[in-house]
Write a structure and sequence with these properties.
alpha+beta
Length: about 450
């Protein structure tokens, strides 16, 4: 009986130790992922030239097309470089920037808000006459301008636009919102409510197409013209446009595919969501306008702060403001903000900014999938010591593999330990058999 109790206690201790090890391993893996515990920055903090040199080496190693980069410190440019496998590019060469244009579209929306022509918390349907959300079990009055900007509207489209090869194929805004003919594979292309507005974050390209329509209806202008008048021209972004033909006339970078071949940039109906053309130099101007000495030419400092204020979270982390991603917290309680963009075949753009310090980086590329995003993530880690949102998301599959691998090893060790406990307890039990040659006395 004593041995049985001892075995039970040992098994209980083994179970407790195993559970602690399983939980501890999960905490370690998550901490390593979230805080980059086993990651080294490209340079020591404050060493601008060394970071630029390391970023150049990384770009040179990974570049399969072309790339332009500009880095800013305290609102001033401190370095730049460009490279190409084909026609030369520079800081003033136009690239298509995919979803990065959503950030600037948000400025267009907020300009109308400052003018009193739009209420952030009004249903977007208040401003629409050309198209309406289809009926659903959810109340469309919850689809407000604020929620569209922060991807909290409940739209579940997940768009994702692939664009059109010919101008003849480009849909009208109304047609695209009803069913986008260029929806990404696996997407219905329909912009509709699929969850309660405000209940959860869900990225929605269709939401920004809806904002594009709202801008046209409220301003009475074509979207591209409005953005020129309201945002680009006042900021001095002379080589930025949502107009495809104007971008071609200004001189576009080659659109490389990962295999080294090139193809023309595609046309889009969903301009606000995915088809802004700009240069690294112009985007640097945009970042400077948001620093501590930023320009009030378009938006007031109060509105700029609102854009960088958390409006959406996921897994307990603040991830989105009003049109701007929140990449990582900064020690002063603010965030590194910005946006990325990715269009097939390999268009990638990244912009990061610490509005409190005026530090930032712009990377535009084609041909290399996520090279711009990777460099942007390295900049965030170098600046803050924190892993940025997209780096975190990209590392989840590898972290999960480490997590499961560690758990398997821990459980395997626990099973081995359990067998050893059982073996020891068996060998320590007194035997009931009599020694050989000993027999009870019968006399």
């Amino acid at each position: 009986m004593t041995n049985d109790r001892s075995m039970s206690r040992r098994y209980i201790r083994l179970i407790v130790v195993t559970l602690i090890a399983v939980c501890g391993w999960a905490v370690l893996v998550f901490a390593a992922l979230d805080h980059g515990l086993f990651r080294l920055p490209l340079a020591e903090r404050g060493e601008n030239e060394r970071f630029l040199a390391a970023a150049h080496d990384l770009a040179e190693e990974r570049n399969r097309g072309n790339l332009a980069l500009v880095m800013i410190e305290d609102g001033n440019e401190v370095g730049s470089f460009a490279m190409s496998e084909g026609e030369p590019v520079g800081r003033d060469t136009l690239f298509q920037t995919a979803s990065l244009g959503k950030w600037l579209t948000a400025w267009g929306v907020m300009s109308l808000v400052e003018e009193g022509r739009i209420d952030l918390d009004a249903p977007v349907s208040t401003y629409l006459s050309r198209w309406r959300l289809p009926e659903s079990e959810f109340d469309e009055r919850g689809v407000t301008v604020r929620r569209l900007l922060s991807h909290m509207s409940g739209l579940g489209d997940g768009l994702g636009y692939d664009g059109f090869g010919s101008p003849r194929d480009v849909q009208t805004l109304e047609e695209s919102l009803t069913r986008a003919a260029d929806a990404s594979p696996g997407k219905s292309g329909e912009v509709r409510l699929e969850s309660e507005p405000g209940s959860s974050w869900q990225y929605s390209g269709g939401g920004y197409t809806l904002l594009q329509l709202m801008i046209e209806e409220v301003s009475g202008q074509d979207f591209a013209d409005y953005m020129d008048d309201a945002v680009f021209d006042p900021l001095g972004m002379e080589r930025t446009t949502f107009d495809y033909d104007e971008a071609v006339s200004l001189g576009l970078a080659e659109n490389f595919k990962p295999d080294g071949t090139t193809e023309p940039f595609r046309r889009y109906t969903a301009l606000a969501a995915t088809s802004m053309f700009t240069t690294a130099e112009d985007l640097a101007i945009f970042l400077k306008a948001q620093g501590p000495n930023g320009s009030d030419a378009v938006l007031s400092s109060q509105t700029r702060r609102l854009i960088a204020t958390p409006h959406a979270s996921r897994m307990g982390a603040d991830i989105w403001g009003l049109g701007a991603m929140l990449y990582a917290p900064v020690n002063d309680g603010n965030f590194v903000i910005g946006h990325d963009g990715q269009n097939d075949p390999a268009i990638n753009a990244a912009a990061r900014l610490d509005p409190a310090s005026g530090d930032g980086i712009v990377v535009l590329s084609t041909g290399s999938d996520l090279l711009a995003t990777e460099i942007g993530g390295e900049w965030v880690f170098w600046k803050t010591g924190n892993v940025d949102t997209l780096d975190f998301a990209a590392a989840i599959p590898a972290a999960f593999a480490w997590l499961v691998g560690g758990w398997v090893a821990i459980l395997a060790a626990a099973v081995v330990a359990g067998f050893r406990i059982r073996r020891r307890m068996r060998t320590s039990r007194p035997s009931n058999r009599r020694p050989s040659g000993e027999y009870p006395c019968t006399e």
